[in-house]
């Protein structure tokens, strides 16, 4: 997904995976299900999420952890509600996008593992 303009230049218009910040004490998987619903209007089955990796990243203004999960969607039907653009790409094309820096290790692992 492509993020729109942000108050931080270094993430403005960058590509990222759907997701967002944990709210209250919610579990990571519950957060992801909520964000996928808010951002794409899709309902997922939480028990089918597969943990993929953790990225710990520090931008100049904040540090954060990104907990990444894999999920096999039954259909590609969704509504883009938050981002300004989206792409469905084969793994080998992923590097053509201008990813947020925190996402680069995720893209590299996806490519390395041929997922
Ligand atoms: N969702 C998401 N955020 C990412 C990725 N890579 C990356 O650097 N980020 C950064 C951008 C944001 O500063 C932060 C996530 O915030 P967000 O704006 O997506 O979270 P949110 O949906 O809860 O948004 P908000 O309510 O705070 O506006 O992490 C990524 O792949 N996905």
From TrEMBL:
Query: Which co-factor is required?
Result: Mg(2+)
The chain positions of domain Nudix hydrolase read 1-112
- Which top EC class is given? hydrolase
User: What InterPro entries has UniProt attached to this entry?
Assistant: MutT-like (IPR047127), Nudix_hydrolase (IPR020476), NUDIX_hydrolase-like_dom_sf (IPR015797), NUDIX_hydrolase_CS (IPR020084), NUDIX_hydrolase_dom (IPR000086)
Give this protein's Gene Ontology molecular function annotations.
8-oxo-7,8-dihydrodeoxyguanosine triphosphate pyrophosphatase activity; 8-oxo-7,8-dihydroguanosine triphosphate pyrophosphatase activity; 8-oxo-dGDP phosphatase activity; 8-oxo-GDP phosphatase activity; metal ion binding
E.C. designation(s):
3.6.1.55
Print the keywords alphabetically: DNA damage, DNA repair, DNA replication, Hydrolase, Magnesium, Metal-binding, Mutator protein
User: Domain of life, per the record?
Assistant: Bacteria
Q: Which Gene3D superfamilies match?
A: Nucleoside Triphosphate Pyrophosphohydrolase (3.90.79.10)
Catalyzed reactions? 8-oxo-dGTP + H2O = 8-oxo-dGMP + diphosphate + H(+)
One Gene Ontology biological process? DNA replication
Similarity comment text for this entry? Belongs to the Nudix hydrolase family.
The entry's protein name is: 8-oxo-dGTP diphosphatase
**Which source organism does the UniProt entry give?**
Petrocella atlantisensis
């Amino acid at each position: 997904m492509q993020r729109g303009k942000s108050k931080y230049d270094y993430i403005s218009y960058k590509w990222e995976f759907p997701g967002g910040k944990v709210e209250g004490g919610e579990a990571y998987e519950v957060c992801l299900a909520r964000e996928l619903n808010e951002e794409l209007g899709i309902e997922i089955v939480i028990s089918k999420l597969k943990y993929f990796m953790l990225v710990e990243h520090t931008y100049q203004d904040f540090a954060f952890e990104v907990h990444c999960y894999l999920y096999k969607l039954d259909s590609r039907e969704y509504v883009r509600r938050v981002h300004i653009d989206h792409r469905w790409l084969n793994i080998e094309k992923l590097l053509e996008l201008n990813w947020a820096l925190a996402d680069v290790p995720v893209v590299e692992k996806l490519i390395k593992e041929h997922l």
